[in-house]
Specification:
single chain, alpha/beta, Rossmann fold, seven-stranded mixed sheet, two-stranded antiparallel sheet, 9 helices, globular
Length: about 250
């Protein structure tokens, strides 16, 4: 039944063509979809292609009930090769990606959008250039400015178009970033709730997280505080509650 729903979504998008969404007029179209079991839970992956720059983006959908729905739990995750694939400790990207996939898989339904906007939109090479400047004392925002970029160059029109294609009318957004909320709402997607996603710090990324909070407005009370995902209560042993974290 779930596969039929995704087939129907793909079919209705088959001949899609539009003037684009947002100030840069982003238009994406479904290229393929498939069932995708993962170590985090069961998902269905929907591959999108941008009709302009031909970049590929993906929606990882847990539960067919997320299609054509309201108040859908959604995480917008921007690609981070160094974090997502290599496990860099300079950021919290991989931690947020994995925590989001686990959290969404525990819910009845939800969507993770994986957006090809490396380095908050400046690209991989420029991100490494920014790292180089940070090695010489600049913070994240200062490094971007020194390279001629804003601190965040992402285009949320891509995410809005993907959600619209999937029939999502409103979301409960997993984020610490108020700009993501404003970006979605400005383009017609209602954000009905914010679900915090604060990760533990380490000695390599604490300054990065502090800069996120102080200069980019991220809703992190103290970047040095370790706020883990809440443990899930599972069972009682000898009258005592046992959580996953204790196992």
């Amino acid at each position: 039944m779930a596969i039929e729903i995704f087939d129907r979504v793909r079919e209705r998008d088959r001949d899609h063509c539009c003037d684009g969404v947002g100030p840069t007029k982003q238009c994406v179209r479904i290229a393929a979809s498939a069932y995708l079991p993962s170590r985090f839970g069961e998902y269905h992956v929907v591959a999108f292609e941008n009709t302009g720059d031909h970049k590929e983006h993906a929606a990882f959908v847990h539960g067919a009930a997320a299609i054509d729905a309201e108040d859908v739990p959604v995480r917008m995750h921007s690609e981070c090769l160094t974090g997502d694939a290599i496990g860099s400790l300079r950021c919290d990207c991989r931690d947020q990606l994995e925590a989001s996939l686990r959290q969404l898989a525990r819910m009845p339904y939800g969507i993770l959008l994986y957006l090809r906007q490396e380095g908050r939109g400046i690209g991989l090479t420029n991100k490494i250039r920014a790292y180089e400047l940070q090695d010489h004392g600049l913070d994240t925002v200062e490094a971007n400015h020194a390279l001629g970029f804003r601190d965040d160059e992402r285009d949320y029109g891509i995410a809005v178009h993907m959600l619209a294609t999937l029939g999502v009318r409103s979301v409960r957004l997993l984020t610490n970033n108020p700009r993501k909320i404003a970006g979605l709402e400005a383009l017609g997607i209602r954000v009905t709730d914010r679900i915090p996603l604060v990760m533990p710090t380490n000695r390599y990324n604490v300054q990065y997280l502090r800069t996120k909070a102080r200069k980019s407005g991220h809703l992190i009370e103290d970047a040095e505080l370790e706020q883990q995902e809440p443990p899930i209560e599972r069972a009682r042993t000898n009258g005592h509650l046992v959580s996953d974290a204790a196992r």
